[in-house]
Design brief:
Blueprint lengths: L4 E8 L1 E2 L4 E2 L6 E2 L7 E3 L15 E7 L6 E2 L5 E6 L5 E2 L5 E2 L8 E7 L18 H7 L7 H11 L5 H15 L1 E2 L11 H9 L1 E2 L1 H14 L4 E9 L2 E2 L4 E2 L6 E9 L3 E5 L5
Parallel strand pairs: 12-13
Antiparallel strand pairs: 1-14, 2-3, 4-9, 5-8, 6-11, 7-10, 8-11, 9-10, 14-17, 15-16, 17-18
Helix pairs in contact: 2-5, 3-5
Length: 264
């Protein structure tokens, strides 16, 4: 049992100043071996990237208006009574078609660990295509860029910058679901400089944009945050209201690492 257990869904790469979309829509069919078990990411495929311990999950998923299958990051294998499973370039997992009934599946995941080399300052070179997806910025004000530089001015590594932005948001802003629609054409700036109150998507959006302003690739990820543990049967009960957004930051040696700037 964990205090907070995150179930990853989809990742988004493009922010237009108001909403998120994904341009990485190509899906590949996952290989099946043995029957009913699909390989999402072989455990050795990312070596020498450090890997955390295996997390085994058995999930009962009620019918949802999506083909996404949710799992702890980052899935390596998924098994169930499936004819086929698909994955996109961000690691999201999909059924070929929506289901109209409850399904059960088992996932083996490994959380990403931060490589010691990423604790040191080192230059990172990214391809133009990678930068177009994960360093993309909307038409943003100098005020946002200046804030990003101020928060990270004493930091040298990408991970230190990510930690500084995460801490700044979680300590200086207040969490609330009771937020009226943004009245301005720049909702991110309204959150950062005026309202300073919001829910998980405000925090995740702010952290991704701040990171990208200082040259650190990042993306927004949606899913569910499981916190309701049922002692009697030993499982988490996850509801629609537990929908959650966090971020993944790209580090040169660790690949994608999950971070959550939203305060409790």
């Amino acid at each position: 049992q964990l205090d907070r257990f995150y179930l990853r869904g989809m990742a988004y790469d493009r922010y237009d100043g108001k909403s998120w979309t994904t341009r990485l829509t190509h899906r590949r069919a996952l290989a099946e071996s043995p029957a009913g078990t699909f390989t999402v990411r072989p455990g050795s495929a990312r070596s020498p990237r450090p890997l955390g311990p295996i997390i085994r999950q058995t999930i009962l998923l009620e019918a949802l208006d999506t083909t996404v299958l949710f799992a702890a990051p980052y899935p390596e294998f998924i098994s169930g009574q499936f004819l086929a499973i698909q994955s996109d370039p961000t690691g999201a997992i999909y059924l070929p078609f929506p289901t109209s009934s409850r399904i059960e599946y088992t996932v083996h995941s490994r959380p990403a660990a931060v490589a010691p080399a990423d604790l040191q300052s080192q230059p990172a070179l990214y391809t133009e295509l990678f930068s177009q997806h994960f360093l993309q910025l909307p038409e943003s004000s100098e005020r946002v860029a200046a804030l990003a530089r101020d928060i990270t001015q004493s930091k040298t590594s990408a991970y230190e910058k990510a930690q500084a932005i995460e801490a700044y948001l979680s300590r200086n802003y207040r969490y609330s679901l009771d937020i009226p629609p943004a009245m301005q054409t720049r909702p991110l700036e309204e959150f950062l400089f005026e309202r300073k109150t919001g829910y998980c998507e405000h925090y995740a959006t702010a952290m991704v944009v701040l990171l990208r302003n200082v040259g650190v690739p990042a993306r927004l990820v949606t899913g569910f945050l499981a916190t309701e543990w049922t002692e009697y049967c030993n499982y988490y009960l996850v509801r629609q209201r537990d929908a959650y957004a966090c971020i993944e930051v790209h580090l040169p040696n660790s690949c994608w690492v999950t971070m959550a700037p939203t305060p409790a």
